[in-house]
Design a protein that fits this description.
The structure is a homodimer. Chain A is α/β, with parallel strands linked by helices. The first copy, chain A, contains six helices and twelve strands. In chain A, a hairpin with a 6-residue loop joins strand 7 and strand 8.
Chain lengths: 278, 278
Amino acid sequence: MRNLTQDNITQAVLARLADTPDPRLKEIMTSLVQHLHSFAREVKLTEGEWMRGIEFLTRTGQMCDANRQEFILLSDTLGLSMLTVAMNNDKPAGCTEATVFGPFYVEGAPGVDLGGDVANGAAGVPCEVRGQVRGLDGEPVAGAELHVWQADADGKYDVQRPGQAHQARGVLHAARDGRFHFRSILAEAYPIPDDGPVGDMLKATKRHPWRPAHLHFMVKAPGYETLTTHVFRNGDAYLDSDAVFGVRQSLVADWVRQPDGRYLVEYDFVLNPVKAGA
Amino acid sequence: MRNLTQDNITQAVLARLADTPDPRLKEIMTSLVQHLHSFAREVKLTEGEWMRGIEFLTRTGQMCDANRQEFILLSDTLGLSMLTVAMNNDKPAGCTEATVFGPFYVEGAPGVDLGGDVANGAAGVPCEVRGQVRGLDGEPVAGAELHVWQADADGKYDVQRPGQAHQARGVLHAARDGRFHFRSILAEAYPIPDDGPVGDMLKATKRHPWRPAHLHFMVKAPGYETLTTHVFRNGDAYLDSDAVFGVRQSLVADWVRQPDGRYLVEYDFVLNPVKAGA
């Protein structure tokens, strides 16, 4: 295996994967190498461009820490995240649709009682959130676990503020009838973090970094597929140009201003039962 | 642009690149997004696999520092580096062939006089290196700048030893007749660093991490294309299974043991003249 050329090197690399014990890993690596090489051939990548790519990926990795995940941002802004979500969440009609996970979920968010306030001092207009978790046949999902997280009035998640305690995130459980309600703050549109390599990519391609206002949910219950989704705020200017391609019309809800100045949003979740034997 | 599906999301992402001012960047991003999405579709990437990919890339970036470039190792072991070299170094017959740059070049290596010793105390069997730098028509390239770097007897480059001063690397200039000679140590086969994510990938695919013994050269001279290459040591067990696919038969030379126990390797470099107007 000497003197490999641009015409036979791909086969040589694939041959080197022949002994991969895990067939799924072999399948993934085989496809990855083919597409990576096809990309380089299609654009006839120069050595200088190759080095800029190496530097971009290195900076992306080095931007990551316990509170920032620049590679998820990159995947989100290139549409890979939403493509993966779409391929893996083909649920029966009537189920709540999934959307991107995003880079701002954290493990260990505080538990909150039903009716409690997840804001924990986060800046923003007070808001009440209500709904019910049901299964596909309309059955209430008693005690469903809801993880919620969102940005504050300045468009920042708590993890974007160094040293900040948990704010505007929490974990609660639905009642026996599947109903839940909690207090938080009004969701606002915000730009994704654009002071790193992903921001440089957006600027170089003249793309804006904005996401329409939304509230993140992850809903879990035994016997049902976990649902990772958002509820988007109707009327937002960015619903048709979400920087991460995540908007689904079925997830858009009205945040309604109440006489006392607070907002109220109501949204029900319909979970997909796990198939028998799955 | 709501309700994107696995069938139309790629076009939606490409549409978002429409205003990219630099046509070359637009071309590269368009091809990259298409191949990235095609890969995910072809293997029907799961959400768990997506997250493992995010974690792998993050670890790869975080493994990089001033002395280690894990993304170059990844590119090298996936054959992308050699493919890029092959596409961009289609030189006339008679020119010395190029091969991969690798992750171990460093700026600021010490200057060495002709005949001097680049080893600087690196462990290894003493070796003399001789040759001539010529142009394609046989003309000597007076004063050509030669950057050389190599691993020591333990298979380690200086930058792999924390706090180590420059060893087994240097910059020298050919004489008026293009000839050069310097002292170093015998090149030995070595494994690429495999204690990081690239090593994990090699293990998971049952690939060995070894590179055949070689000496790196980068040769520069006004009026000629810069040549980045290796000279490989004839007889090495890994010449046909180089972990980074870099071996070219024309770059293999004999390291000849001399009566005093030292080795001698002779190799001439033929540079490609820059085309008029290029």
